[in-house]
Amino acid sequence: MTEDPWADEARQERAVRIGWPPRNRRELMVKVLWIGVWLVFLGSPIHDLANGHHSTRATVAGSIGLAAFVGVYLSLVFRNMGRPFPGRVVGTLIAILGVLAPLLAYTLGSAWLGLFIYLSVACGATLPLRAAYWAIPASGAVLYLVGLHSNEKEARGLVLLVILIGFAMTGVGQLVRTTIELRKARATVAQLAANEERLRLARDLHDLLGHSLSLITLKSELAGRMLPDQPDKAAQQVADIEQVSRQALVDVREAVTGYRRPRLAAELAGTQVALAAAGVVAEVPGEPDLDGIPEETESALAWALREAVTNVVRHSGADRCVVQVLRRQTLDGPALELCVEDNGSGGPGNAPGNGLTGLTERLEKAGGTLEAGRVKHGFRLVARVPVAASAD
């Protein structure tokens, strides 16, 4: 596996993480750079202030106004890429930009007309579509009216740019809102799935224990009535109670074992969803070859996959993960191998955590091995379990 595909897909993934707050310092710097590069249009106002064409009072007032405008714009746009402000706050900030842009351009000259570009971008990216559809043309109209006072030709050239870039940003704003709604929908689906699982567990426990507990209660009452006068029959009822309670205990243990024993195919499907929800580009096999694999062996690999994906999502800071399930011929015989490799940091510290330690013990019980550690471009976990030779 070469470095270029990893880097290319990582850059693509970071480029489309619109609507998500930055997860680490690298993503924060990428978003700051993406916003900051568009501040190039502030070159004219800064150059105008630096040339000393205005009085000291006008220069100071212009500097304060420009700093306020840029601060409001950056806070508005940056928050819109992760955790947007409430609608009322957005309207207030847009109003501030809508006052500062014409005021500065009218009082300080045509060099400040570029501020209307930022006003149009903010309107298109943050306002609802219906509001943006009239706010953007209104920005262009105000730009032209202000330009009549200073430089009509320059204003006429900027009007089309302001309108076009504003409407282009409405698409970005809609994408941001859709992404946020999708993230909330995923969280809701996960919560509903957890609730459904709790209800299923409650139903299964009711079906398993309802009859047994009712029978135990009935026989206990019978034994209590028979105990003074018919001790032999009471003893028989107590023996029946013991038998029913033992069977109920067996049923509960089997049910709990079924809940606790994961399946590799189900874990692979859950891995795809979990990594996608965390913003990680995932390569996950669809249908692994599990013919002839014992249940305990499959369960051990499923636990290994769950622990590895948990580490990728919580600790690695990765944006790319590859999962492979392959059959290998080793010196000890045929084996089934699970490999999970990401391009993250591997989490804090170098010592194995409790999860990896417990996973090693679980694999050793199944006759398998675990290898986990840093590689050239990230972190790799490899779990191997033996399979019968006839399975090949």
Characterise the protein shown here.
The longest helix has 75 residues, at 152-226. With 392 residues, the chain is of the alpha+beta class. A hairpin with a 2-residue loop joins strand 4 (369-375) and strand 5 (378-386). Residues 1-16 have low confidence and may be disordered. The protein is built from twelve helices and five strands. The chain has helices at residues 3-15, 25-36, 43-50, 56-80, 87-108, 115-126, 129-150, 152-226, 231-260, 264-277, 295-316, 354-365, and strands at residues 281-283, 320-330, 333-342, 369-375, 378-386. Helix 4 packs parallel to helix 6 (115-126) and helix 7 runs antiparallel to helix 8. The protein has a five-stranded mixed beta sheet.
**Order of helical and strand elements:** HHHHHHHHHHEHEEHEE
Shape: elongated
- How much helix is in the residues? 55-70%
Residue share in β-strands: 5-15%
In spatial order, strands of the major sheet run: 1-2-3-5-4
Structural class assignment: alpha+beta
Counted by DSSP, the helix tally is 12
Q: What kind of assembly state do the chains in view correspond to? A: single chain
Largest sheet descriptor = 5 strands, mixed
Indicate the mean pLDDT: 79
Question: What Rg do the Cα atoms give?
Answer: 33 Å
Stretches where pLDDT falls below 50 for ≥5 residues? 1-16
Distance between the termini: 27 Å
Q: Please count the beta strands (DSSP E, at least 2 residues each).
A: 5
